[in-house]
Design brief:
Number of strands: 8
Strand content: 15-25%
Order of helices and strands: EEEEEEEHHEHHHHHHHHH
CATH class of the largest domain: Mainly Beta
Distance between the termini: 5 Å
CATH topology of the largest domain: Jelly Rolls
Radius of gyration: 19 Å
Structural class: alpha+beta
Mean pLDDT: 81
Length: 292
């Protein structure tokens, strides 16, 4: 089941947060769409760190283009995007934020990425793709959403597009790899790769290759990102560094800080200071640990 999180309507429209609040995912899309958010948020001029997570990100701006000033990999130049698809990554995406942001964002499960967007997750790892470079309904989706008169119409368009795309994949993603991915998610990134390989009946090498092709990261990288993502959620909720390190399976607080520097590009305290204005927004409250 997809988790639909808080919405804020555009100031120029009559819809309220309650009008487009929590709702069910479209039939067939729940396994691939993990979160959907939409609305208008006023922000000051700043650079936001898009941290590594266990989701691909589909971001559609209905206002000014999204300006990325730092890509997760050095082989892609910064740029502006009306709509973008970001793959899993192990370093931050730096996004310039100014004025009012207005648009829609979807967090996509990597195990269903090929069916949902027509591009395997492994080909997107560490990259940001302009949605205009894709063919068919996704390429024209930003224009359709911008022309829609209200939020209900926009979500109806999303439902139609996502449901149709899931229907185009009769076999679904590889069940064994999807199972292993959800085991990693449920464990908070603490399950051992050897145990996963043993339970699938494959060698560790074969398991790792299958997993990377489907998910976009190796099992070890995926576990690292999932553990980091859980730590992000706990710190957002007000947890202390030592407590978070212990609950997430880090050896100690210095281990957590070292991982944070590697994956976020800064220390946890520096990130909290940067993000504090956004963390205080009730519509960006963290989602409790759970599985679809």
């Amino acid at each position: 089941m997809a988790r639909y999180i808080g919405y804020r309507s555009a100031a120029s429209e009559s819809a309220t947060a309650g009008d487009v609040g929590a709702r069910a995912a479209p039939d067939g899309a729940g396994a691939a769409v993990d979160e959907v958010a939409a609305g208008e948020v006023a922000v000051g001029e700043a650079v936001h760190r898009g941290l590594p997570s266990g989701h691909l990100t589909l971001n559609i701006s209905l206002g000014e283009p999204v300006r990325i000033v730092g890509m997760p990999r050095g082989d892609q130049a910064p740029g502006e995007f009306r709509a973008l698809l970001g793959g899993l990554h192990t370093s931050p995406v730096l996004i310039a934020r100014a004025g009012t942001e207005y648009g829609m964002e979807l967090a996509l499960e990597p195990a269903g990425a090929a069916a949902m967007v027509g591009v395997p997750a492994s080909e997107l790892t560490g990259h940001v793709l302009d949605l205009a470079d894709l063919h068919g309904d996704l390429a024209v989706l930003p224009e359709r959403l911008a022309e829609a008169p209200d939020w209900r119409s926009r979500f109806a368009i999303l439902d139609d597009v996502l449901s149709a795309r899931m229907g185009d994949d009769p076999t679904g993603s590889a069940e064994d790899v999807a199972w292993a991915w959800h085991r990693i998610r449920r464990s908070g990134g603490t399950v051992r790769v050897e145990a996963l390989a043993r339970e699938t009946g494959w060698s560790r090498r074969h398991f790792g290759e299958r997993f990377r092709r489907e998910i976009g990261l190796t099992p070890k990288q995926a576990a690292r990102v999932v553990r980091f993502e859980r730590a992000v959620g706990l710190l957002k909720a007000g947890g202390g560094l030592a407590e978070t390190a212990s609950r997430c399976g880090f050896v100690d607080q210095p281990h957590l800080t070292a991982e944070w520097r590697a994956l976020a590009g800064c220390a946890p305290a520096a990130w909290l200071a940067e993000e504090l204005p956004f963390l205080q927004d009730p519509l960006t409250a963290p989602i409790p640990d759970s599985e679809p």
